[in-house]
Every structure is written in C-alpha cells, then in structure tokens.
Please model this.
Amino acid sequence: MTAEIISVGTELLLGNILNTNAQFLSRELAELGITVQRQSTIGDNHDRLADWVSEAKDRCDLLVFTGGLGPTDDDLTKETVAACYGDSLVFDPEEWEKIVDYFTRMGRQTTPNNRKQAMVPVHGEKIPNAHGTAPGAWFEQDGRCAVLMPGVPAEMKAMWTEQVRPRLLARQNCTLHSLTLRVLGGESEIEYRVRELLKNANPTAAIYCKTGESEIRITARAASDQDGEAMCRAYAKKFYDILGDAVYDEDVPGLAYTVIHTLEAKGMTLATAESCTGGLIAQQLTAVPGASNVFGFGFVTYWEQAKSKLLGVDLAVIRHYNVVSGPVAAQMARGAREASGADLAISVTGLAGPGGGDEVRPVGTVYIGGAAGDSVWVEKFHYIRLGRENVRARAAHAALELALRLLQGKAPAGCCRLAAADCDHPQALDALDRALIL
Amino acid sequence: MTAEIISVGTELLLGNILNTNAQFLSRELAELGITVQRQSTIGDNHDRLADWVSEAKDRCDLLVFTGGLGPTDDDLTKETVAACYGDSLVFDPEEWEKIVDYFTRMGRQTTPNNRKQAMVPVHGEKIPNAHGTAPGAWFEQDGRCAVLMPGVPAEMKAMWTEQVRPRLLARQNCTLHSLTLRVLGGESEIEYRVRELLKNANPTAAIYCKTGESEIRITARAASDQDGEAMCRAYAKKFYDILGDAVYDEDVPGLAYTVIHTLEAKGMTLATAESCTGGLIAQQLTAVPGASNVFGFGFVTYWEQAKSKLLGVDLAVIRHYNVVSGPVAAQMARGAREASGADLAISVTGLAGPGGGDEVRPVGTVYIGGAAGDSVWVEKFHYIRLGRENVRARAAHAALELALRLLQGKAPAGCCRLAAADCDHPQALDALDRALIL
Model:
C-alpha cells in the first residue's frame, strides 16, 4: 500500500510554523507497512489544492491530509477533496450540537462560520474529533482513499491514534505491536553494529538518533496483540545479544526518566552540582513527573566562590588544578552529597565555549563526578567541535549515564575511583589529576 | 517570482528526521519577496525525482533543492536535475582537491565514491561549500532556475546565506534589511493589536509566536543597505507606537540574553531560586555565552528542607501558607539574594502537575518572587490546561520578565511589593498572602 502526506496551510509555506505532523505521520505509516512516497505542503488555495489532489489521487492508494478544516473561508480542504472523490458535504445536526457544546464549555459563542465545521461527507464518513471542534473526514472512490485530519498537532495525533490508525489496521486485518529500546553510546557506532537487524520486513526495526543515545523501535504486524508482543520480544533479544547492557531501558521517554525510576525502585535520592551545564541536569530530572520523590537539591555553582561556599570545594584545589579538572569534579560531587544528604550526587565542570580553552583544556573538555557510599568517581570527556549548546547537552547526558551506572553498581570503564575521604588528600588528588590528564 | 522547495531523502519519508530546512527556506524566500507555492519531500529514487522535476519546472521560476548531494549511490539529485535542465556534469579537479584536503584535516581517507561529489555542472555553476565536502549546484534553462544545496542543516544554512541569497538579491537588483522586535505578552493579543501592520508589501512584517512572547520580523527591500535600514527603523516605530515597552529588545535570540546583557550593562549580578521550574531558568541564563559575568549562584530547591537549608525559608511559613504561596516565593527570593550576595534574585514556586492541586491552588498556580535593594516583589500566575512542560516554560519566562522589569525599575502591574525586612513579619506575610489569593 502506498500513501502521500499533504499538509495544507499557507502559514507552513511562509515558514511561520514548523511542520511536525509530516514526520509523525511518516513514522506511523511506516509502522503500518504503508510506503510514503511523498510529503507535500500546499497553501489554502482552492485551484492549487484541486490540481494537486487530481494528480496525487492516481499515484497512490491513500492520501493523508492535515489542516484546512477550520471555520474560516481559507479552510477549504474538505469541500475540495470531496469534489475530487465524487462526494459532497451535508450539514450534520449532531456534529453541530457538539460544536455548540464545546464553545459553551469554553465560555465562547459560535459564529455562523462555525457551521462549516459541521459539514460531513454524504457518501464517505465523518471522523469524530474528541479534542477540538472540527470533525475529520474519510473519502473513498474505486478503492482509493483520502483521510482528512485537523492541522493542530495535538488534535491530529489524537484523531490518528483513536480513529484513523484502527481503521487502517482493520483494513489490513492485523494488529501492530511496538517496543522501543533506549541505547547508550555513539549513534553511528550503534547503527553500524545492528545494521543487519534494521533490514527485516516483519518485525521492522528503525533507529533514531538522540543526544548521546539512540532509540530503536521494533514493530511487529500480527494477527493478535499477543503474537505481536511475542514477535517483538523475540526480535528485541537479537538487539540485546549484540548491544548487551548498552540497552538501558524499554518504552521510556529518556535517560532522566530511567534514572528517576531506578532511584525510586532502590529508595535512594540524588543531588546535582552543575557548573558548565548550568541547571540543565536538574531541569531534565525535574521534567519527569514524580521527580520530587527522589530529587530535592540542585546546586548551580557557576562561580568558584559558589563551588566553595555551597559545595565546600577548596579554592586552593581550584587554583592548583584548574576549575575544569578531575579534583574539582570530585570535590563538587562529594560536597553536593554532603550538603544535601542525598545517597548519590553527580557533578559537572567543563568548558562549553565558545570562549576560553587552551592546549591542555580545549573547549569541549568536561569532567563528570559521582559520589555514593564511601567513593567518588570521575570521568573525563572531550566534545570536539560541538558548539556550546551541544557540549552542554552531551555533558548532561554523560552525567545522567554515570548516575545510572553507579545505581546499577557498574562504574563505566575509563572512570577513576577515589575514596571520598581522600578528596582532600594532595597525593590522591594528584594521582586522580594525572590519571585523567593522560 | 515563484518557487518550490524540494527536500530529497528517504530518511525524511520514513520520519527518521524532522524537516527543519523547509521552514528555514520558506522564511528566507518570503523575505526575498519570492512566493513559495509548494514544499515537497521525495525519496532518493531517480524516476520519481525526475518525474517530479519535470512537473515542477514548468510551474514556477525557481526550484530549491536540499539533500542528495552525498557520496553514496543513493545520492542522485545532482545528475537527475542536471538532465532535466539540459545540463550535464564534469569532474572538477579543484573541488576534488578541496575534498581530499577536508578529509585529511579530519584524519580520514577519501573513498572512490567521494569523487562523485567533485562533479560539477558543465553549463550551470558550482556553489562552493565552506562547511562540508559537497559543493552545491545552480542550473538554468529558459530563465528557470534550480539551486541544489546539501541536506545537513548547518551546511545548507551557511551555503544559503553566503552564496545563494546574495545571488538571488543580485538578480533582483536590491538589498534586504531586517530588524527583529522581541515582544512580551500574550501571543494572540499582540497579533490582534498589530494586525494591520502585518499586511504591508514593503517592508513586510511577520509575527512568530514563542513561549510567553512574540517575535516580529520587519524586512525591507531597498536599493541600498542604508535605505533598507531607514525603512525598517521607520516601520519599527509604528510597532513601538502601538506596543510601547512590551517591545523589550531588538535582534536578540531571547529574553535570557537581554537579561544577561542588561545586568552586564548595569554591573549587576543575579541569582535564582527554583522549585517547580527545577533549574530551567538557570539553564536558560547559562545558555547565553558570557553568562558567567553576571550569574554565579543557582539554587534548585525542590524539597521544603532544601528551601529551608539553602534559602532560609521558614518551615512554619511553609506549613501556614502552603509551599506554593506568595510568602514562600518572597522568602525564597530574599534568601537566594542573601546566600549568593547577588544584586538581584528571582524565585519560583508552583504546581506544574500533573498531580497535586486543589480548589485554591489548581495545577498551573505559580508564584514568582524578585528581591533587589530593600524590597521583595511577588506575582501570581495561573497557567490553566497547559501541561507540565508548558507550565514550567511559562513560569521560567515570567521570572525572567520580572527580572528584566526590576532591572528597568518598572515593577509590573499586579505585582505586590514588600520590604525585605518584612519577609519574616507575620502581619506583612498575611497581607501579601491575602493580596495574592484574592
């Protein structure tokens, strides 16, 4: 089965808004085994839209429209597409009642224009919209279909998931089951290692790159949910066999979520001490609902005196080793743990750029610390040519990765360990500094 | 002049990546006075691409391509478009030398495939790529043009700005000058107030909505830069006349940037105390290069004991008024100022949801505090039905807005003022609480 996606809206052609609908629908259609041949964006113009539909209708089995279902004169997707599929529209009192209700609940009045939104296909089907005023529409002629959904992403996604996707699955007489693996590590390296597994027909597997990690989405088409689940599980095992514990979780939104829930499961708490990431780690942790169960204290210590006052970092250590150094990362982590009483603390000190940096510590040099039990761990990273924003994002990700690994009792290779009590001992700090510089 | 934008890449049709190039180019072309009639995305497939180019070539004056200039067999935009414009490609030793140099600098070796990237138009022009290996191309036939750029956004944007835009301007025998106003306040309200000014032909003005603010971009086409600048300035005055000091800055990336640079100009420093925003404000401030000149201390006090220990908030005040209350926001701001020694401190305490909330304090209730000189100010906001992420984003924006207004000596209307010394006085806190609850 082949499809094209059409986004209707002059505001898209002017670049006023970013088209995220096309990406969402492309992923969803790919999972349904439907090949997307084109994505197009057209303005709210009757003639151009009619021309386009006439061309596209013969090229593929399914046209998926978003946008142009609103109440204004500009919104003409429904009548234009209806005509192209030999259909017409009729006023639907039931939809009109829903629209009036919706406006009443919002404390607003309908206008005569809103009646337009209650027009539905005579031969095709209306598609209920549980999250807005405009119903969608389904047209069909000679086995070729068109589906029309609203342009507002939240309304479109809900209508897709609740109404359109199930219709397409029913036509294919199958169900879909998905499983998403979250994988730590360099993106292109992960893709290379699993490349053969990405070529399968059913289940399919696709890889999406994120900051410091990748997402692998496995999707099975099967006669029942149970079969689909079993197929996904069996295929996931092939990824685990290759990637091992680089796979850190399944079906979660990201690393901060897993760190929060691992802490909860272990009844432990976390604190953060951030220099170059400047609050980014705390922000990511607190973006997870329920973070307050395990996270209470975050220190953004951008200045040396803040590191000293809030975390007890020794100013002499900063002077001796540099503020961007392993000894400072170690003292920051230890200090955050002590000042907060948390079970685990993570710290970051680095040079995000664009200014600063020298031969020993170029822009992109970052030290990550972790303190738990009677130990402190420090790692060093070089993020070369990434730019300020990406250095910060990668550093935050690396700190969360260290937190997760310490919670799992698996300190990463390349990490230096120090007794917490040795964080003030010159010889121990010297050894740490040397180990990390080399 | 009319144009279409064509993004080439199967990874776009699979939804693996979000197409941000089309939005960027749409905005840029609109500024050049070129009407974008369609945006399309096609896969790396010779026949479909050739069909598409043949159709589109006759519909408009300019086709703008991104993607498909890489070294692999899949990358066939250049040869396909060349054929459609009656042109062909030839190996260019100069480009090849650049590619070899580039690989050498990166410590990598070229492969035979890379020679493909050194193929350039025979009749058309090659377009230098200063930021990657693939040169772009320009084809022309009977006054109709096609321009080919790389798909990697950073390379594409640089080539557009440095090479393609100047060519298009030279053809139009004019220059462009732009001015961007940043405006605080509700987006639809701002748009309504300036709607008549958005309909002008030259200068044009477009409004883009952001969290808690809008961006108004004024663009003039003129014979000289000087004329363009004068036209923009005169047109900007019309916006200032309507919007007054809701316009907070010009040609800056956002509010955090303006706050940092206003602090710098005044020789003042800032500290933050965040509960529900959880580090988001500190993160936004430290995303601005040079933030370390004015920002040194950020407190993420997610728990009551963190508010008490780090900021000296009275636990009895939390118990009496609720942790989400005006008195707590006031004590947080005062405490952050004292603990950091900063000239100005801002604080946030609120309910981002999804859990919690009651009739008096529904989810979305946020108190923002500011402390400077011998005063503390507190504001209350209700962000209804926004969801956790948006409540946090709006609250962070409101806190930065308060910081800016206090720096300008213009406390917002609806803000309650309290003497800093009264932050511990039961009567003063009672009065503040009542004033904000009502």
